[in-house]
Each structure stands twice: as structure tokens, then as C-alpha cells.
Amino acid sequence: MTDDTNTCHSPEGTPEGKTAAESAVIMTHQVLPHDANPAGNVHGGVILKHIDTAAGVVAMRHVRGWAVTASIDRMDFLRPVYVGELVTLKASLNLVGRTSMEIGVRVEAENLLTGEVRHTNSAYLTFVALDGLGCPRPAPPLIIQGELAERRNRQALRRRELRRQAIAEERAAG
Question: Which domain holds residue 56?
């Protein structure tokens, strides 16, 4: 991030708002043998790397600048992904704070021989927008459009509150 010689400051002004659709991405990756264990199941870390990449693209598209992973709130492995399948990652913004953004990522695997598509993973990640010195900077507000965006935003606000409570409890426990 920054060294002791850099001083972070908050620039004046608020960036113009954007909708989740303006930064959402759909990325694909065909699973190859080097992505998997000897049983042919994709390593969880491989899936996690693709999730982090997709979420990072969403964050950078939203802020049109640098953004870094601050946390991964949840990572659910629902079903395995196998060698030869096509992995599709659907990522979009759920919530934008002053400098941080929650991005949800849904992972689906498609058997290219049968056409079967199944939901395999879900994750919520928090990214922070950075300026040229590596200091947090304001992110454009999220313009909520539609029932789905409203629901995702409400759920993200609840998750943020739960994260804050957990952090407070950890600090209080010493």
C-alpha cells in the first residue's frame, strides 16, 4: 500500500454515480488439468483466484482506477467443478460506501458435452478504491435501479452491519 513517507488525504468532491450494470462483468474460463487435483476436481484456490479477478475488474470499472481486495466475506463451495468444464463468473456491485465496494460473484459450471449448467460457488468481496499514492479515495456512489438491485443493496447493507459487529466483538475480546 503506502510507505511512511506518503500522506493520504481525501480529495475534494464526490465522483458522479454509476449503476451496477455499468461495471458488471461475465468472465469465462475452461478448466484444464493443471487447475485440478488428481481426482479431477478444480482446486478451491483456482476458483477463488478467478472470483477475485472478476470482482477486481468490477471494482476497477466502477472507479476507473485502482482498487484492491480488502476482504472476502464469504466463499461457499456448493458443488464441485471438473476438468473440461466451462466456468462462468458473474460479478456485480451490491453496495458502495465512501471508498469501499461490496461485489457479489456467482460461479456456474457448464458441462460442455451435456449442456448441464449448475451453480457451484458464491462469494462476497470488499474492495477499496485507491489513488495514485495507494491511499483510499472516494468511489462513485451506486445508483440503485430496479428491484433486484434494491434487494442486493439491502442484503449488502445487512452483511456490512454484521461485519462491523464481528470486528467490534473481536476488538473487545482483545
Answer: 18-173
The whole-angstrom separation of Cα 164 and Cα 159 is 9
pTM over 0.85: yes
Distance CA 102, CA 48 (A): 16
For residues 79 and 101, give the distance between their C-alpha atoms in angstroms, rounded to a whole number: 27
Question: Of 25, 26, 20, nearest to 145 (Cα)?
Answer: 20
User: Total structural domains in the chain?
Assistant: 1
Residue at 73 is within a domain: yes
Neighbours of 40 (CB within 10 A): 14
Residue 71 lies in a domain: yes
Residue 9 within any structural domain of the chain = no
**H or E element that contains 72:** strand 66-77
- Tens digit of pLDDT for each residue in 17-54? 999 999 999 999 999 999 999 998 999 999 999 999 99
Residue 111 lies in a domain: yes
Long-range contacts for 101-104 (Cβ within 8 Å, ≥24 apart)? 101/58, 101/59, 101/62, 101/63, 101/67, 101/126, 101/127, 101/128, 101/129, 101/139, 101/142, 102/73, 102/126, 102/156, 102/159, 102/160, 103/55, 103/58, 103/59, 103/127, 104/152, 104/156
